[in-house]
Amino acid sequence: MSNALDWARIDTVLLDMDGTVLDLAFDNYFWLTHLPAAWGKPRGLAPDQAMQALMPHFIGLRGSLLWYCLDHWSELLEMDIVALKQECRDMIRFLPGAQDFLQQVRASGRRLLLVTNAHPDALALKQSQCPIHEYFEGLHSSHSWGRPKEDASFWTDFAQDCDVDLSRSLFVDDSEAVLRGAVAGGVSQVCGILAPDTSTPARQPFGDWPHVHGLGDISVSTR
Fold first, then answer.
1. SS3 per residue for 11-41
2. Both 211 and 192 in a single domain?
3. Looking at the Swiss-Prot or TrEMBL record, what is one Pfam family this protein matches (predicted)?
4. 198 Cβ contact partners less than 8 Å away, ≥ 6 residues apart
5. Are residues 179 and 96 in the same domain?
6. C-alpha 170: how far from chain center
7. pLDDT at position 3
């Protein structure tokens, strides 16, 4: 894997949060199991019936900033989504090998920034459970720019505001749509994660970029 990345041309490492640094098992469990059960119960719906009713909302907003907006879902579903997430917060954890990779990047002297589509309240919850702030120079939510990472124009404004040279950056994410947005936005090197959720099997490679099961499979070259 290290041979697929040109570390001589990487000054900044940009990482997604859920499914890259943190286990996506929490998020998948919450949205596919915990939330439907909690939303369906007072409405007399079995979990599978509730999921069937919610799915059109999920599909319709996928890839948009609203899909990631907890305020939107709280209003639409008439539930406190942040409080509901707190009920299963013990599932929030680092993915295997992630912390070692973060330490390697820091030791190499490169900049290390978290770039997530997560709502600021979701980011705060994750940070309260895992000390991600100890590794990163900055934790950045795309909500601050009003556009998701799937939007190529997000990367232009993010790079300008955070003084990042995208032509000398590596971005790692588990989403094909996000990685395509990053490439279109000018990020020179990207890498896809194949095992974002420890509760499910690894996926097949997607897109024409390097892939790894997890961050622990990437060897960081020193300067």
1. CEEEECCECCCECCHHHHHHHHHHHHHHHHH
2. yes
3. Hydrolase
4. 23, 25, 95, 96
5. yes
6. 15
7. 47
Pairing status of strand 189-193 against strand 111-116: unpaired
Same structural domain, 77 and 158: no
pLDDT, averaged per 10 consecutive residues of the chain (223 residues), comes to: 80 99 98 96 95 91 90 95 97 98 97 98 97 97 97 98 98 98 98 98 95 96 83
Look up the domain containing 204 and give its range. 2-24+92-217
Q: How many domains does the chain have?
A: 2
Q: How far lies 200's CA from each of 60, 68, 127, 129, 155, in Å?
A: 24, 22, 24, 22, 30
- The amino acid present at 80, given as its one-letter code, is D
Q: Are residues 99 and 200 in the same domain?
A: yes
Place of tokens 């090197």: 189
Tell me, yes or no, whether 7 lies in a domain: yes
Same domain, 177 and 153: yes
97 and 123 belong to one structural domain = yes
Residues 99 and 81 in one domain: no
Query: Could you tell me the end-to-end alpha-carbon distance of the chain, in angstroms, rounded to an integer?
Result: 17
185, 208, 169: which is closest to 14 by C-alpha? 169
For residue 87, what pLDDT is reported?
97
- The two three-digit tokens of residue 141, written as one number: 């939510």
CB contact at 8 A, 214 and 97: yes
